[in-house]
Design a protein that fits this description.
Elements (H helix, E strand, L loop, with lengths): L1 H6 L3 H8 L9 E4 L4 H13 L4 E5 L5 H5 L10 H14 L6 E6 L6 H16 L4 E5 L13 H13 L7 E4 L8
Parallel strand pairs: 1-2, 2-3, 3-4, 4-5
Length: 179
């Protein structure tokens, strides 16, 4: 797994494997895992290797990933997700932004919606600098249309919470430049 690979290589080898060159900046790396300690160790290696931003993937809907308590699974467990966010944010230099990749929720239930907003609000309180949001639930995977109205609702939430400075990037159903 990538998180195990990342934590087992030296800084010099990490630069070789990831190919971060001066002309590549700014560049970011995305992490996925299930334990705060995994994320912290991997983020340190990646920052030492020259990455300028760390993104946490709490959106992947792949069955194998979910079964290991990673990716989109964490939308169903905001307590663990927020432990991860807090641990990684505290471990990073202030100059390295931390961002999240999220989905609309784990499923379409009201409880899942509540967990989404609990996670989002808590992540912002812990210093997340930006969010990429896919407008489908984890259960939907890539079926059906992405709910861009939900992205608008999240943007309104950010404005109401006086956090309109936090970038919100939409994801889902973008297939080419015209769309």
């Amino acid at each position: 797994m990538l998180d195990q690979f990342v934590t087992r290589v030296s800084r010099r080898k990490a630069r070789f494997y990831y190919g971060v060159e001066e002309e590549d900046h700014p560049c970011g790396a995305q992490l996925m895992g299930s334990e705060p300690e995994q994320f912290v160790a991997a983020a340190k290696v990646l920052v030492d290797a020259g990455f300028d931003l760390i993104d946490l993937n709490f959106a992947c809907p792949v069955k194998k990933v979910l079964g290991r308590g990673r990716g989109g699974y964490l939308l169903s467990d905001p307590t663990t997700a927020l432990k991860i966010v807090g641990a990684v944010r505290r471990s990073l230099p202030d100059t390295i932004p931390l961002t999240l990749k999220l989905r609309k929720g784990f499923d379409a239930s009201p409880e899942s919606r509540d967990r989404f907003f609990t996670l989002l609000d808590g992540a912002l309180d812990r210093g997340v600098a930006g969010v990429t949001l896919h407008g489908r639930t984890v259960r939907q995977r890539y079926e059906g249309a992405s709910d861009w109205n939900f992205l608008a609702e999240v943007k309104r939430f950010l404005v109401e919470e006086k956090r309109s400075d936090v970038p919100l990037l939409g994801s889902g159903d973008l297939f080419d430049a015209p769309t």
